[in-house]
Amino acid sequence: MTDATAYQGPAEAEFSDYIALLKPRVMSLVVFTAFVGLIVAPGTLHPLVAFCAVLFIAIGGGASGALNMWYDADIDAVMKRTRNRPIPAGRIEGREALAMGLALSGLAVMMLGLATNWFAAGFLAFTIFFYGVVYTIWLKRSTPQNIVIGGAAGAFPPMIGWACVTGGISVESLLMFALVFFWTPPHFWALALFMKEDYHKAGVPMLTVTHGRQVTRRHIFGYTLVLAPFALWLGLTSIGGPVYLAVALVLNALFIWRGWQVMQRSDAESYADNHKAEKAFFKLSLYYLFAHFMALLVQHWVVA
């Protein structure tokens, strides 16, 4: 299904269109959390090796984005938020995006293995597969739990960064994973609360579409309660400390409070003020994850 109004740009692709295929906003989160996982891990890497490791993880994340845009071109074309992306807008052909995604995936995995270790490289390969196949091809269009299970793909990068240094997995890396994993559903569900029509039009079974906004609001608040203990537990591990715990306590109290406000809303109230509480929660969620991982960095530097 296509939208005749989708095309808003030139037919010839520009360099920026190929960058857009890599989903730079999502990739920035991948880069940052992977970087933090690498820095706070016990042990050290040569600065050049560390830079290359983060770069190859970023390329792998971008490759996942290209594969996602290739497969999702049909639904991107009917959503206001995505219809001017390079493929539905007609500036890049789907087969180009597929070739680019596969080539970058192979490059990223191979180079990460050569630069660090093959466990980390295998982990990156699994992450690309999980996002490109498990989430994009299977979960996204088949279940309202798509963003819950599929969120694991976005939670793996700090574990990969950790594995680049240690060659393995630990409680600390699992808790960094949990922090991102349990943050992802309320973050995206808050967006879906004021973008429901887009998902409904595209036939994506987001929770707002299949169960309604009131159920989604309750799920958002429930996840804030589940998320907080994992965020605080991370502060009690070897990479935590008073700086991180102070930040986590404040942020999770705010997150729970905002989640409570969202849960108490009715559709009538939400429409009356243009989803004010939902948008406030979504905005806070953008800062939430960044602040936690920045606090881990600051805590590491304070101890060092």
Automatic annotation (TrEMBL):
Question: What does the record give under GO molecular function?
Answer: protoheme IX farnesyltransferase activity
Classification via Gene3D superfamilies: UbiA prenyltransferase
Pfam families assigned to the protein according to its UniProt record, in alphabetical order: UbiA
User: What CDD domains does the annotation carry?
Assistant: PT_UbiA_Cox10
The membrane-spanning stretches of this chain are 26-42, 48-71, 92-112, 118-139, 146-169, 175-194, 220-236, 242-260, 281-302
NCBIfam families (UniProt xref): cyoE_ctaB (TIGR01473), PRK04375.1-2 (NF003349)
UniProt lists the family membership as follows: Belongs to the UbiA prenyltransferase family. Protoheme IX farnesyltransferase subfamily.
Subunit structure of this entry? Interacts with CtaA.
Q: What is this protein called?
A: Protoheme IX farnesyltransferase
Q: Which organism was this protein described from?
A: Paracoccus jeotgali
